[in-house]
What does this fold into?
Amino acid sequence: MNLEFTAEERAFRDEVRAFLRERLPQSVRDKVLDGRDLSRDDYLAWQRRLYEQGWGAVNWPKQFGGTGWNAVQQYIFEEESAEAGAPRLIPFGLKMVAPVLMAFGTPEQQQRFLPPILSSETWWCQGYSEPGAGSDLASLRTRAVRDGDHFVVNGQKTWNTLGHFADWMFCLVRTDPDAKQQSGISFLLIDMKSPGVSVRPIALLDGGGREVNDIFLENVRVPVANLVGEENRGWTYAKFLLGHERTSIAGVGSAKRELSRLKRAAREGRRDGRSLLDDPLFAARIARIEIDLMALEITNLRVLSEEGASRAPGPEASILKIKGTEIQQAISELMMHAAGLYALPLQVEAMEAGWQSDPTMPPVGPSFAATATSAYLNQRKLSIFGGTNEIQKNIVAKMMGL
Amino acid sequence: MDFEFSDEQRQLREAVEGFATKEYTFDRLRAIKRSGAGWDPAVWRGLAELGVTALNVPAALGGLGYGPTETLALMDASGPSLLLEPILTSAVIATALLRQFDGASATELLRALAAGDRIAALAHFEPSSRFETRWVESRVTPAGPGFRLDGHKAVVAHAGLAQVLLVSARSRGEAGDAEGVSLFVVPRDTPGLTLTEYLTVDGQRAADIRLDGVRVPESSRLGGEGEALAPIEAALDVGLAAVCAEAVSIMQALVRATVEYLNTRQQFGQPIGRFQALQHRVADMTVHLEQARSMSYLAAMRCASTDLEERRRALSAAKVVIAEAARFVGQQAVQLHGGMGMTDELKVSHWFKRLTAIEILFGDGDFHLQRFAAA
It folds into this structure.
């Protein structure tokens, strides 16, 4: 047994660190480290720099222009990037639709859709959840009816993340209403510029920037050429996609970054005029999270080193998701509490611009406090999206034989 | 032992609840939250007509002369409507503070507060104090016939709409000393007083206040020189007991809304309330709620106690239980509503945010846990 990275892995990590040091713009790093919102351009500019480096698709095999990195290398890259304050990789194109296209798409679909994902010319979004189909996704009702060379799609998708930036959406639709739930679903690629597609923002509790949308599909004509795989087999592809993402689901890198921020915040936070780090109870609360995170990091590495390319997903992904989201939420709670009374002001503008630059909103309280409570509220989503933690626990229990 | 309200208290409760339910619908709340003013003077007038502003003012000064149990009934009745108007700030804390003083400044102001003609806000906590009431760095120095105030007050609720601020400042000693804190009645438009206003997480308005050479007359000081900390702490404890009652009423509303949602929302061909994991979560929320309710009663009964040590222990214990319950019930109500719980569209998220604010107000759970242990 050896818990250390190998010499090659350490060399690789140094290479990643050097790249991040040289190429990650300070302005973007500051935004991420301060917990502020990133613009579409921030994400795209970073993705282009990765592309120039030949690292446009860290999870793809070489034959499609990816890095061909193994799971440990991908993990190292993502954790180092998160810790350094790089924007997260927007997963919808690179990590979600692309693996499905590689496994089940036609050569034409692969040639058409994969290169612009690699060069970040197209932004993808996900059309899965519906108002009546959340945890029970297979009960989805968005209908696609064949009409010559097209499907005509009608329905509503919801909790669509950043769809207002998107050029394309991969979408689960019902093509056979008479079949058993999971059997009548197909996987369609929809051009967001198609007539009949409308995107409406959903206002969230944190009062922050636009994040999720409702998407209305009204007689949207989708060429049959945009059907992925076989008609009525979409559920298989959707499950493939959900089980595919295990390297960054735990969010160890971003949790480490936020934990460092929390410690800085506690140093800055005041209690009777002294640093909050001198408060033994607060220091112990931080320590407890740090310890949980140490365990999660090792659990995550164990999962990665066991991972065979074609091994069916076990309970590991669910375990990583449950514990990872609990840790991130716990950090955001403590961050809010570190702010003391200054947790109360909700400086919404700070989420977008940084309050230093907004003369109409003079700063109050320590700098970290400006986004602490918005982030706490927003992070409640972590245990809800991507399969609620309750659903994840059902999966773990089932895998354990119950 | 008697855990029931009297007939009079029940009538007050019903009157306030009726008013709040009718006049303060969720749509109205959202409209007022978004408005520039952030409160509605007409609602305040309506509350004054119901006697809310007079509740804690002595009868001799035009008030109703009620106490903590009536305040509990008031907060319980108004809590779920999430009124943005300064009930806690002015009708509870400011009046509880002022009624401890005799002079004309205090009694005149109390009459105006009782009638609903004035709003007053206590400006006490400071950027470095976190939740420690003794930590006063702001200074008062003699200046001519009166005084000069300098300092910085943090997150003063409703400061922007109060005509009168009750400002603490130190005449001697060091920050952290119990002695040497005095209290002054300061009109908000006094030169040298600057407000930075903002929204707080619960949609209310608050401000940081800079005092830069603020001149006030000798008559503005409430009570003796350097003796204000005890009355301030007494008023803050009345406020703490009031938010405990408010929190319980909101938790009750959240548990109800969650049960209704679980019985309505269909997934996997059945209401999700059929799933035992979610049933147990509701059971845990209910355990928290009832423990919190018990402690809100204890807080109300002890907040005016003359036995200082007993009062402190009871109120800290109440805040520990209520902060933990508020966090659990608020978070789980959002969780069990799924994505819908995250939206601005449902009242669930608004209740959750007020509970989040209450968790922090007057000291978070960890602050009071340590204070209890040290007592």
